[in-house]
Amino acid sequence: MTSNDNWYMGCFTDTGPIKEKNEDYYSMKIVKDRDGEEMAMAAVADGMGGYQGGDLASRTAVQLLVAWWEKHAQNYLKRDDPIPAMLSALNELCEEINKHLLQEKQKAGTTLSILLLYKGMYGICHVGDSRIYRLKEGQVELQTLLRGEMEEAGLKEAPELYRTDELKMDLELYQLTEDHTWVEQQVRAGRLSKEAARTHPKRNVLTQCLGVKGGVDPYNATGTYQPSDLFMLCSDGFYSMFSHQQITHLLERREKKYVDLQKTAVDFVTLANQSGTSDNTTVMLVRNAFVEEQERSKKHTPVRKSLFKRLFK
Q1: What angle do CA 114, 225, 268 make, to 5 degrees?
Q2: By CB count within 10 A, which of 56, 142, 186, 205 is most buried?
Q3: Which of 122, 141, 138 is nearest to 295 (CA)?
Q4: What does pLDDT average to in each consecutive run of 10 residues of the chain (313 residues)?
C-alpha cells in the first residue's frame, strides 16, 4: 500500500509459523467527493479456521464490500453527513454477505471490520473479533507538522532530537470495536478480567460472525479524529499476543522513530510471529493528514520554524 499527500498507510499480512494458508483478507479504497475531499474505507476480515473455506469466506466478504463501495460510495458523498447513512447501508450489506456465505456449499465463516474516514469523522461497522484501534496523540499540530517536514526531507527515521524528552508525546490507545466473543461477554458481566480473557481457553469462541448462522447485528460507532491520530485494524493473530499496554508501548516506540507506516506494519506482524502466534496475522495502519479549511491559510509560528530548522537542517 502506498501513501499520498493526504494518507499515510501501511499493511502487511502473513500466514504465520503454524498454519498452512492465510485466511485473512484486507482492502483499502479511497474516493473523492465533488470538492475533491477524500473518504477512505479500510477493512480486515479473518476467515474462521474451524470451518472449511475460511480463506474463501474472508475473501468473498471483502470482495462483496469492495463491489458495494465502488457502486455506491460516490453517491453517499453527495450528502452533507454521509457516514451515518453509509453505516446503515453497511449493516444491511453484512446481512447480505452473511446470507451469501450461508448459501455456499462449504460452511465458511469470517469476521469483518470496516473503518470509514472522512474529513475528521470516522465510522465503524464490525462483526466478529478482529479489532480497530485508535491511537490518539497529544501535541496534535506539532506532531503533524513534524511528519510533513520529515516527508519533504525524505526521512524514513526521525532525527535523534525528535526522540528526546523535548518532544514528548501524550499517547492514548482506544479499542473502538467490541469483540463478539464468549470471553468478552464474561468480561462485561464482571466474571472475567480483561487480562484473564486474553489467555482464556475459550477466547476464540465467537458469539457472532458472518457465514455460520442466520442473522447478524453489526457493531457501529462514530466519532471525530485529529490529523495526527493513527488507526490500526488487525486480526487476532496480532493483538492476542500482547496486552493493551504492550500494544500502546509498541506503537509509541515506532511513532517516535518512524514515519513509514509500512515498515511498522511489517515489524508488528514479524513480532507476532516471533512471539509465537498460532494464527494468521494482519496489521493495517492508516493516518489521514487532512487539514481543516480554516487551517490551510495559517502560517507556522517562529517557535515551530526554529524547531524545524534544528531538526531538518
Answers
A1: 60
A2: 56
A3: 141
A4: 75 95 96 94 90 88 98 95 97 97 86 97 97 80 56 62 51 94 88 81 86 94 93 96 94 81 95 95 93 47 37 38
Q: Look up residue 224 and give its three cell numbers.
A: 471525530
**Residue keyed to cell 525528535:** 162
The residues with which 114 forms a beta bridge, in sequence order, are 43, 125
pLDDT for the residue 304: 36
The predicted structure's pLDDT at residue 146: 59
Asked whether the beta carbons of 261 and 8 are under 8 A apart, the reply is yes
What is the C-alpha separation between 309 and 80, in angstroms, rounded?
41
State residue 201's pLDDT score.
77
Whether 111 and 129 have beta carbons less than 8 Å apart is answered as yes
3-state DSSP call for residue 249?
helix
Identify which of 102, 97, 24, 32 has the alpha carbon closest to the alpha carbon of residue 66.
97
- Which pLDDT belongs to residue 1? 47
Residue in the structure block whose three cell numbers are 458469539:
207
Cα(88)–Cα(123) distance, rounded to whole angstroms? Answer: 11
- Cell numbers standing for residue 12: 502487511
Q: What is the pLDDT of residue 165?
A: 45
CA distance 276 to 241: 8
Sign of the four-CA dihedral 241, 128, 19, 202: positive
Q: Which CATH superfamily is domain 7-312 in?
A: PPM-type phosphatase domain (3.60.40.10)
Rounded alpha-carbon distances, angstroms, from residue 78 to 29, 72, 154: 18, 11, 36
In terms of Cβ atoms closer than 10 Å to its own Cβ (0-12, 13-18, 19+), residue 105 is exposed
> Can you count the helices (H) and strands (E) in the chain?
9, 10
As a whole number of angstroms, the distance between CA 125 and CA 281 comes to: 21
Q: What is the pLDDT of residue 156?
A: 61
